[in-house]
Specification:
30% helix; eight-stranded parallel sheet; 11 helices; 367 residues
């Protein structure tokens, strides 16, 4: 019996041969270009993939939240981690100190208000914390602006006891929202150039910069091509998703994770209802140039027009003859990261058979 018949739905299936291809390609790229690979675990949140990334040469991993890092440290698979997020508040600083007793930790800072409490805590504990300045290269989220604003902050941070400024990091996520490949390349390269120029500015001012770290799967092969980038932090590449293959470098066949779902109703000739609603597919909008809440592998021209909590509404084109009640179909999500966070496990498929079940260990670790 194939995985489509044996698994209850909705569930997440991972094709291990495609996963291995994705992992190997990124590791080979980093190695060939002299880049440190520090993958973000937010996409998969599993011990198994964390371990495999390390086996393929990752220097460490990236997490957004302390809870993710704690879960994977508990599993014994995390040894060196960048928390690419500002650590704010006494409770989180206490947890940070506890985590530092088990693994090597680097954190992001983007202001004196974030850095000073960390400095005081490290002084009191008699320890040293590595930090990277988070630089806003265009996303408009957290981060200090490149150039002189970053230099001013760096001058203050290097004077703070208990903190060791190792370099700079950015998330050039805005590049992934580009309308086309040309814009993606322009935005990605500009982000990389801003990072390298800022690093050089700090060095000319007598501030050593060891790490110049960038992080984005869509722009992974663009931003890192700028000479002077030292580290890459892709996350989505392990599975890819519908937002990834629209740029043309990969196709749907490179999406290692699919949502297996069942047709539960055919209330009209042009409409089907799936048992995967917003609690499975998440609510991320489609990427530019696409429509609907995911890519229906079994009928690519169909559009998942809207979601209720437990229902997906599928608008069917006239030529789509399948999708009868009871049929199992596969959906590639628009954004795979929140989809994984909605499930307890991943079912690993090889040659049509389920060969393993992986727990999503860091699921829900948002603190």
């Amino acid at each position: 019996m194939s995985y489509r018949e044996m698994l209850d739905t909705p569930c997440l299936v991972v094709f291990d041969d495609v996963l291995e291809q994705n992992l190997t390609e990124m590791a080979s790229y980093a190695r060939a270009h002299g880049l440190a690979l520090r993958p973000h675990i937010k996409t998969h949140k599993t011990a198994e993939i964390t371990r495999r990334q390390a086996e393929l040469g990752a220097v460490g991993h990236t997490c957004a939240k302390l809870g993710e890092a704690e879960a994977l440290a508990d599993a014994g698979v995390l040894h060196d981690v960048l928390i690419a997020y500002e650590i704010v508040g006494e409770a989180k600083i206490r947890r940070l100190l506890n985590l530092m007793e088990r693994v090597h930790v680097t954190v992001a800072v983007d202001s004196v208000a974030v850095a000073e409490p960390l400095s005081r805590a490290m002084q009191a504990a008699g320890t040293m914390l590595d930090v990277l300045l988070e630089i806003d290269t265009g996303l408009g989220r957290a981060g200090v602006l490149p150039g002189e604003p970053a230099l001013r902050l760096a001058r203050e941070v290097v004077q703070m006891p208990g903190l060791r400024l190792r370099g700079l990091m950015t998330h050039e996520g805005h590049a992934g929202r580009a309308a086309d490949t040309a814009e993606l390349e322009r935005l990605g390269r500009a982000a990389g150039e801003a990072m390298v120029a800022t690093a050089e500015l700090l060095r000319r001012s007598g501030i050593p910069v060891e790490v110049v770290s960038v992080g984005s799967t869509p722009a992974a092969f663009v931003t890192t091509a700028v000479p002077g980038i030292t580290e890459m932090r892709p996350g989505t590449y392990v599975f890819y998703d519908a937002a990834s293959f629209r740029f043309g470098r990969i196709g749907p066949e490179r999406c290692a994770l699919r949502i297996l779902t069942t047709v539960i109703s055919r209330p009209a000739p042009d409409r089907a209802i799936l048992d995967a609603g917003s609690k499975t597919l998440a609510m991320d909008p489609p990427p530019p140039g696409r429509h609907g809440h995911g890519y229906l592998v079994d009928c690519p021209d169909a559009v998942i027009t809207r979601l209720n909590e437990e229902h997906a509404f599928v608008q069917l084109p006239p030529h789509c003859q399948g999708l009868q009640v009871g049929d199992r179909v596969e959906v590639i999500p628009n954004h795979v990261c929140p989809v994984v966070n909605l499930q307890d496990e991943l079912f690993v498929v090889r040659d049509g058979d389920v060969v393993a079940t992986w727990r999503v260990l860091a699921r829900g670790k948002v603190r």
